């Protein structure tokens, strides 16, 4: 059964992994974030209780 022979598939997996790690990943990580975080002060939400009309 050819699908049980790991020899060609292991080589394909290894080449794919090296391509991803050495070529594609540095290109992807070189992009800058298009929306950098801002230094706005954090607003605390109002936590007043809700008054239910039937209680």
TrEMBL record:
Q: What is its main location?
A: mitochondrion
Extract the ranges annotated as region (Disordered).
Answer: 34-55
Superkingdom of the organism of origin: Eukaryota
The protein's matches in Pfam families, at most eight in alphabetical order, are given as: ATP-synt_8 (PF00895)
The answer to whether the entry has keyword Kinase is no
Q: Which GO terms describe its molecular function?
A: proton transmembrane transporter activity
What GO biological process terms are annotated to this protein in UniProt? Answer: proton motive force-driven ATP synthesis
Q: Which residues form a coiled coil?
A: none
Q: Does the keyword Amino-acid biosynthesis apply?
A: no
- UniProt xrefs under InterPro entries: ATP8_metazoa (IPR001421), ATPase_protein_8 (IPR050635)
Q: Which keywords belong to this entry?
A: ATP synthesis, CF(0), Hydrogen ion transport, Ion transport, Membrane, Mitochondrion, Transmembrane, Transmembrane helix, Transport
Output a single Gene Ontology CC term carried by this record: mitochondrial membrane
Transmembrane parts of this sequence: 6-24
Q: Give the bilayer topology.
A: Single-pass membrane protein
Q: Where in the cell is it found?
A: Mitochondrion membrane
Record family assignment: Belongs to the ATPase protein 8 family.
Would you tell me the protein name for this molecule?
ATP synthase complex subunit 8
């Amino acid at each position: 059964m050819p699908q049980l022979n790991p020899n060609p598939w292991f080589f394909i997996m290894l080449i794919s992994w090296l391509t991803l790690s050495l070529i594609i990943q540095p290109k992807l990580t070189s992009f800058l974030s298009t929306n950098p975080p801002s230094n706005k002060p954090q607003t605390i939400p109002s936590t007043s209780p809700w008054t239910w009309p039937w209680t």
